[in-house]
Specification:
The chain has 14 helices and four strands. By secondary structure, the chain is mainly alpha-helical. The chain folds into three domains: 131 residues, no CATH class; 122 residues, Bacterial polysaccharide co-polymerase-like (2-Layer Sandwich); 204 residues, no CATH class. The longest helix is centred in the middle third of the chain and has 61 residues.
Length: 499
């Protein structure tokens, strides 16, 4: 008999269908048993509930030109840093102890291991990621437990830890920076004082070289120097007071702006209350500009807030006192210069060069000291801002919810996946059984086994009783297959309704 090339090599589709039909129960058995066993297992699993909350990292309301920001990192890095501290094992162990979690594991697991178990149930995920660095300012915090109320309570505790840790970190950073600047200011002040003494000694040496020096001028210069020092101290105190008053005005400005934003949700921009807030905002901004530039305050300044009105009067008094002391400072310096010019008129060129160098070093150190002092004042303002909780902070825009429906387990997905797993197991079993039993399905296989020519023909002869039995067996198998399919479908539908 001639055979085609396709039949003589490889396995035909007919042989595959024959094998599948012969091993049908090896396939249908796992396809029926595996889904039913899986459904029975997943229906016994307890429901779990997930409570979620959404945080937003808010930037400080006071503009950068007024108060420095301590955080120069991206929002995502700030959030990840706080999350690492909150999810540290010591803090989570405290949450486990406060709520009495995992009572069945106590005595078997350490507090750190139970903290790790709690950490696995907490998820921190970004809400949106934008920019080339995938930065984000909002994140979703979720916790999963077997009780909905307990999930909400524990998530509320964890959410409060995020706010608490953020406040502690900002406050610590602000205080550390301020302490560092304070130390630098003190060091600069000591260096300036030492150089000032060097400058005084040089001047005194120059004076001692001139026998015609009037000792009375030395006393006058000493008195003027003491007066100048007192004046400078008072001016520094007034400058610090202006910085504090400016911070109060900035806080008042933010408060009025927030009031205006709230009113805009109800009224139009032309409403009298909105117009009143606009006028007040303009007045406060003019006051801040006047404080910064040292210019006179705008006339007829009136504010609703009695605290701000008191600040206005303090700013007015501060400016008047600052103006008076500045004039006094200039007059004292001019008078000292006149005395010093007369005392040094007869000094030698070498001494004059030494004096110029000492004066230059003193001016450099003084400039460095004043720059550090200004930075210290701005840092102190930032510390005050953090203490008022007006800096960069976490805001809970969506508090922990009480889940109404369980979030898991995903019984329907698991049961549907088990159908595919049962089919795969059945096909694998059928393939193994087919390999274990050698059957000749094609003529080419028979010829490979037997070298000689074969002519075999065996007709199938059945009795009527055998035909009836075969038909009944086929019907029973079809009925069993239909029952199995219906049973799996009914179980899946039950999982769909109750899972």
């Amino acid at each position: 008999m001639a055979m085609s090339e396709k039949e003589s090599s490889g396995i035909s589709a007919a042989s595959i269908l024959f094998a599948l039909r012969k091993r049908r129960w090896w396939i249908l058995g796992p396809l029926f048993l595996v889904p039913l066993a899986t459904i029975g297992f997943v229906l016994k699993l307890p429901d779990v509930y997930t409570s979620t909350a959404i945080f937003m990292l808010m930037q400080q309301p006071v503009p950068k030109q007024y108060v420095d920001q301590f955080n120069s990192t991206s929002n995502a890095e700030v959030i990840r840093g706080v999350a690492r501290q909150v999810l540290a094992l010591p803090r989570l162990s405290g949450v486990v102890d406060s709520f009495g979690l995992y009572p069945e594991d106590r005595g078997q697991l350490t507090s750190e291991q139970m903290g790790e178990k709690l950490r696995d149930q907490i998820k921190v995920e970004p809400v949106d990621q934008v920019g080339p660095r995938n930065d984000f300012a909002a994140f979703r915090l979720s916790y999963t437990a077997e009780d909905a109320k307990r999930a909400q309570q524990i998530l509320s505790q964890i959410a409060s830890l995020f706010v608490e840790v953020n406040l502690q970190e900002r406050g610590t950073k602000a205080q550390t920076t301020t302490a560092f600047l304070k130390n630098q200011v003190e060091v600069a002040k000591e260096r300036m004082d030492r150089q000032e003494q060097v400058l005084i000694n040089v001047k005194m040496n120059n004076i001692s070289q001139n026998p015609a020096v009037n000792q009375a001028k030395l006393g006058a210069i000493s008195d003027l120097r003491l007066q100048l020092q007192n004046t400078n101290t008072t001016l520094s105190r007034l400058a610090q007071q202006r910085t504090q008053l400016e911070a109060v005005l900035n806080a008042g400005l933010v408060r009025v702006q927030n009031e205006r934003t709230t009113l805009l949700n109800t009224y139009t921009a032309k409403h009298p209350e909105i117009v009143k807030r606009d006028n007040e905002i303009g007045t406060i901004q003019s006051l801040i500009t006047a404080v910064q530039n040292g210019t006179p305050l705008p006339p007829a300044t009136s504010l609703r807030d009695p605290i701000l009105s008191q600040v206005v009067s303090q700013v007015d008094a501060n400016q008047a006192e600052t103006e008076r002391l500045t004039k006094e400072q200039q007059a004292v310096r001019e008078e000292m210069q006149r005395y010093q010019a007369g005392l040094l008129a007869a000094s030698s060129p070498v001494k004059e060069h030494e004096l110029e160098r000492a004066q230059k070093d003193y001016d450099t150190l003084k400039s460095e000291y004043e720059d550090l002092q200004a930075k210290f004042f701005r840092s102190q303002m930032a510390v005050n801002l953090e203490e008022d909780q007006a800096g960069q902070s976490f805001r809970l825009i969506d508090p922990p919810n009480l889940p109404a429906k369980p979030s898991g387990p995903q019984r329907l997905k698991i049961s549907l996946a088990s159908i595919g797993a049962g089919l795969a197991i059945g096909l694998l079993l059928a393939f193994i059984m087919e390999l274990r039993q050698q059957t000749f399905l094609r003529e080419v296989d028979l010829r490979k086994e037997f070298a000689g020519a074969l002519v075999i023909g065996i007709p199938v002869i059945t009795t009527p009783s055998e035909d009836r039995t075969r038909k009944l067996r086929i019907a029973a198998e079809m009925m069993a297959g239909v029952i199995m399919v219906c049973a799996v479908a009914a179980a899946e539908y039950y999982v769909f309704l109750n899972g």
